[in-house]
Amino acid sequence: MLGPVILAASRSDRMRRLISAAPVTKQVVDRFIPGETLDDVVPIIEERTAQGLELTMDVVGEDITTPDQARAARDAYLALVDRLAELELGARVELSVKLSMFGQALPSPATTLNEGPRGPAPAFQGGHELALANVRPVVEAAAAIGTTVTLDAEDHTTLDSMFAIHEGLRKDFPQTGCVIQAYLFRTEADARRLAASGSRVRLVKGAYKEPAEVAYQQKHEIDKAYVRILRTLMEGEGYPMVGSHDPRLISIAQELARRAGRKPDEYEFQMLYGIRSDEHLRLAAEGHRMRVYTAFGTDWYGYFMRRLAEKPANLRFFLRSMVSK
Ligand code: FDA
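^ thats the input. predicted complex w/ dihydroflavine-adenine dinucleotide below
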């Protein structure tokens, strides 16, 4: 029952200030977020790729409040692409972005202009256009160095906008990926649409606090939905990215891939930095494509809290470290 409480805290500014300032937090955070700067993470990128792993890099940050912050997010990703260009790793290192960090939730002038008593209702509220304007240069820059971007899935209220941005970007950059969440009722239909279109789709269980009207609440229901959706992706024409640390789902994924006649380079596994690291290496050594989602940066609060919520033992470790200080 702790998970929902931690997820609620992950949206609280007061908790953000408290936890971000706690003197011991950083050593606990480091397990999941290996650095704050590009200089911190470049050695990790070099080490992991030398071990046969692939990476997807996430500059942490979400729920920003001003357009300047959204532009700063874009610039942080562009700086990352510049460093990746020097490393010449191509598609072995791709990018993951959260559109909320690019301004998706902000009121934007472009949308406001369309509003009014008789004007057409805007298709999307807030900063949809702003997020699109900020993410496009990142996708372009990534394509120029031979890699791609995946749009992370955030809470369910953001997803229609995310899928519209994804579809728009794919017209020019068909490799642009997106994430779907097994816990949402809508996802089976989303998977059917995406599997038919040849896109890159990462399937995850889902990490946000979602109401019972839109999402399964029980682990066994989420796991069953995950398997159904994964079957759709494996039997489809797209490139499935299996985002999970769950050993049962990983063996089911291998079996579904085999039955669908997929070769090892026709799908991949993805796991988070700091979680089941031995398994990353084991799967890579077995000849699977394994991509490690590696988050870095200073605004780590939301990302860190979701990792705590996923495993109560993490919270116990975190609290113990605060008490023992
Ligand atoms: P499950 O939670 O059942 O965990 C299986 C096992 O993995 C656990 O028993 C434990 O051993 C280990 N484990 C899992 N989480 C752990 C943790 N935090 N600490 C320590 N051990 C842990 N979600 C989302 O909503 N939008 C997104 O865009 C993404 N993106 C994303 C990318 C990638 C590459 C991954 C792997 C995951 C995401 N997620 C996500 C998060 C996802 O929704 C989910 O919350 C986590 O992956 C945990 O679910 P598992 O499938 O690992 O299963």
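The mean pLDDT is 91.
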